[in-house]
Amino acid sequence: MKIGIDVDGVILDYQRMLLTYGELYDFIELKNKGIVKRDEARLVDRYNWNSKQRQNFIDKYFIKLSKMTPLVPGAKEVISMLKNDGNELVVISARGGNLEKMQDVALEKFEEEEIYFDKYYWKQDDKLEIAQKEKIDIMIDDNYKVCKTLSENKIKTIYFRERGMKKLEENEYLKEISNWGEIYRYFTTISLSIKNQS
Predict the structure, then answer these.
(1) What are the residues whose beta carbons fall under 8 Å from the beta carbon of 175, sequence distance 6 or more?
(2) Do residues 146 and 165 both lie within one domain?
(3) CA distance to 10, 87, 106, 107, per residue, from 57 (Å)
(4) Which one of 7, 22, 93, 183 is least enclosed by Cβ atoms within 10 Å?
(5) What are the E-state strand segments in the chain?
(6) pTM for the whole thing?
């Protein structure tokens, strides 16, 4: 099976870091009243920051937080098991779009943690095109807009949903999962089902 995997919020717990420091930045530095749209994952959509405030946050925090970010619990182990089970793993991430150095930080973290992938696609805001080009069987992503677009285009998608984020209705192309243990169970069940059919 060919599996597409997003990085931030799926492999690296970067989303949680961003949301925490975004809140501190908004409250302490900007002295704002807080979140405008709580169920939005991206800071750009959560707060009503102007372009200068957003850029200041990017410059001040993106690299620093990226270097501090731990792995999502279970990511390393399950990615290794999926690889050992013979799956092809393709990173498809928007990371590096704002700051190119972000992808280097991720690659260093993967090397340090001994996590390996078959291909990498960085700076991908439109993941549908790459998923179609690569003939991805299942994509794992934490962005509800990406998951909605992929599933509507008949690409099986795992919505790695953090508590409090927007819900999407599950269907044959969309499955909501919240941890890597569930992901491994899901893939193992699919593999057994395919073997039983052949």
Answers:
(1) 156, 157, 158, 159, 186
(2) yes
(3) 22, 38, 19, 23
(4) 22
(5) 2-5, 88-92, 119-121, 138-141, 156-160, 174-177
(6) 0.90
With tokens 């930045």, the residue in question is 25
CA distance 148 to 82: 24
Q: Are residues 187 and 94 in the same domain?
A: yes
Residues 99 and 51 in one domain: no
Secondary-structure breakdown of the chain: helix, strand, coil percentages, each rounded to the nearest 5: 50, 15, 35
Q: Structure tokens of 96? A: 């590096």
pLDDT in tens, 121-164: 999 988 999 999 999 999 999 999 999 999 999 999 999 998 77
C-alpha–C-alpha distance, residues 2 and 169, integer Å = 24
**Which contiguous run of DSSP H or E holds residue 147?**
helix 144-152
